[in-house]
From TrEMBL:
Protein name (Swiss-Prot/TrEMBL): MerR family DNA-binding transcriptional regulator
Domain spans labelled HTH merR-type: 11-78
Organism: Devosia sediminis
The keyword Cytoplasm is annotated on this UniProt entry: no
GO molecular function: DNA binding; DNA-binding transcription factor activity
Keywords: Coiled coil, DNA-binding, Transcription, Transcription regulation
Length: 131
């Protein structure tokens, strides 16, 4: 996903980041509009630094793991703050997310079992009708 040479690069264009992470430039501008990224500007051109790239990695990871933009914003707001506070916030959010996913998994397992039961009953009725 990431380019090996990107780690050594200091400046990135919006197109560089979009290409590297397989997202649209519109998505990056959206994250910027929400205050999650703060590129420098040279005229109308956005210039992203390593810090912006690192934040984008965290944003995309957070989205992939199902965190809201609010959760991600809260986490990023502590990016330069006390590390212990950042880790505590992250641990709490991870616990919440795990609990939600476990509830969803249980709901899915219940639904799957119910659907299997319904299918079995339907097949039994079809077998009785055909016989």
């Amino acid at each position: 996903m990431t380019r090996p040479d990107a780690e050594n690069q200091d400046l990135f264009s919006i197109a560089d980041l979009a290409s590297e992470f397989g997202i649209s430039t519109r998505a990056i501008r959206f994250y910027e509009s929400k205050g999650l990224l703060s590129p420098e500007r040279v005229g109308a051109t956005r210039i992203f630094r390593k810090r912006d790239r690192a934040r984008l990695i965290l944003i995309l990871r957070g989205k992939r793991l199902g965190f809201t933009l609010r959760d991600i914003s809260d986490y990023l707001s502590l990016y330069d703050a006390d590390r212990a506070q950042q880790v505590n916030l992250l641990a709490g959010k991870v616990d919440e997310r795990l609990a939600l996913l476990e509830r969803q998994r249980n709901d899915l397992e219940t639904t799957i079992n119910e659907l299997r039961d319904i299918k079995q009953l339907a097949e039994q009725r079809l077998t009785k009708k055909a016989g």
